[in-house]
Amino acid sequence: MSHQDGKLRPVLRFSDLLIYGMTYMVPVAPWVIFGFLHVTSGGTPALAYLLGMGCMVFTAASYATMVERVPRAGSVYAYARVALGPFAGFLAGWLMLLDYILFPALTCVFAAIGLNSQIPAIPREAWVVGLVLVTLAVNWFGIGVSARISAVLFWASVAAVGAFVIAAVIALSGGKGAGHVSTLSLWPAHIVWQSLLPGVALGVMSYLGFDGISTLSEEVRPEHRHLIGRAIMLSLLLTGVLFVVQASLLSDLMVGFTVGDPASLAYDVANATLGPTLGGVMTWTVVVAAIVAMVPICAGVARLMYAMGLDGQLPRVLGRVHAKHGTPHVAMLVTAVIALVVALVGVDHADELSTMINFGALGGFLLLHLSVLRYFGKREKTVRFVRHRLLPGIGLLVSVGLLLSLSPLALAVGAGWLVAGLLLWAVVLRGRPASEGLPVDEGMDSRVGV
Fold first, then answer.
1. What are phi and psi of 430, to 5 degrees?
2. Where is the secretion signal located (predicted)?
3. What Å distances lie between residue 28 and 117, 154, 183, CA to CA?
4. Are 214 and 63 in contact (CB under 8 A)?
5. Alpha-carbon distance 297 to 216, whole Å?
């Protein structure tokens, strides 16, 4: 495949992909949304995280299946385009763009809120501008540089999680909270499913990001490309374990604790049971983790725009690659501008931004599962029932169920975005000539590099 100003460079290894996916999901995410998850899940946040991970396993399996056949930077956009046709491909890409556009803005807002709480003299808006510029600078010089910086800070976040787990176990053994490590939040005596399901939908939001690994397919070393699917699944499972353990320990610690502001519940519990020092460390760790997460998040957005630009589904200028650094620099600039605008508008409305993200992701996942069902049997005659029929079939039903459980605001914003995309296709894109990227009727072979 020829690119206009250069080529995406295959420099990433399996370990880079694994860290990328886990960084995207933010290992310390439970500290940020624990209060909201506790309220929406009926007091069972660990179970909500566990079930959310179970829901996403089917989606991870479909990603792992399709990335072997269509190893392109466009991810689900490319899969739907090959399996279902140009319109479905555009629709999948357009829906995922809603998720990919809002997610970096939301992460930036969380980081700005944390920084402002520590240094009130600098307003949130100033932090937003600074964070977006730093993220753009890191990504500008190539995915290899981004991966190395992310890896260092990722391990710092994991170390902080480890410190929290050890301190929590010691505090519980010493009589704090429940007085012992329990499974009450993971599997209570009585489960009210109607109260739990909204929590599962919110928990799913924390897992959005493992799919971002697939956007880097063209930048993976040829000898590691067969491991992309494994990195997708393993990043989901490892992060899920971290989420469940942290949520369970926080639930044990807060036994007898009066819930105040859900946004600060995790920090309030830590300050009361583990001491203000660790509470302060947790706050700064969340800030650092959010900043670190912005690097892969913005990289994924840019690569989806790059793939759609290359195929003429968005302005073709987005398909340009920097000749020196091998990065989709135009798409990166556009991503930075959009993230900046959305973050500035929503800097005081993080809760509303959170509710809007899932629509685009779940809509894209729905088309992903349809792509697997369509691809195997029509384009590829060999069909394995479990991998190519059962898993994507269950994933399709799960995606529909989660979509229907979203808030009215999320559904309204998602419907508006969908209508805008349909108008764009009908008025501008429908009559365009064949793309300059992947031929829809030829597909790609996973054994051949891009």
1. -60, -40
2. none
3. 18, 10, 20
4. yes
5. 11
SS3 220: strand
**Choice between 389 and 284, residue whose per-residue pLDDT is larger:** 389
Among residues 149, 228, 310, 217, the alpha carbon closest in space to that of 9 is found at 217
Query: Which string of b and e fits 53-84 if b means at least 16 CB within 10 Å?
Result: bebbbbbbbbbbbbbbbbbbbbbbbbbbbbbb
User: Which residue shows structure tokens 């991998």?
Assistant: 387
The length of the chain is 450
Q: Residue 77's closest CA among 328, 367, 437, 310?
A: 367
Among residues of the chain, what percentage have pLDDT more than 90?
22
CB 9 within 8 A of CB 142: yes
What DSSP designation does 434 have? P
What is the average pLDDT across 274-287? 79
What digits encode the pLDDT tens for the residues 228-262?
889 999 999 999 999 999 999 999 998 888 777 78
Residue 98: φ, ψ to 5°: -60, -45
For 403-408, the CB contacts below 8 A with 24+ separation are: 403/358, 403/359, 403/362, 403/363, 403/366, 405/197, 405/198, 405/200, 405/201, 406/201, 406/355, 406/358, 406/359, 406/362, 407/355
The tally of CA atoms less than 13 A away on the side-chain side of residue 381 is 0
Give the per-residue pLDDT at 8: 66
Is 285 in contact with 157 (CB distance < 8 Å)? Answer: yes
Domains plus CATH for the chain?
Answer: 14-429 (1.20.1740.10)
One-character DSSP codes across 182-205: --TTTS-SS--HHHHHHHHHHHHH
AA identity, residue 405: S
Tell me the torsion sign for CA atoms 165, 171, 174, 178.
negative
Cα–Cα distance, 124 to 108 (Å, whole number): 10
What confidence score (pLDDT) does residue 62 get? 94
pLDDT tens for each residue of 335-373: 888 888 888 888 877 767 776 778 888 999 999 999 999
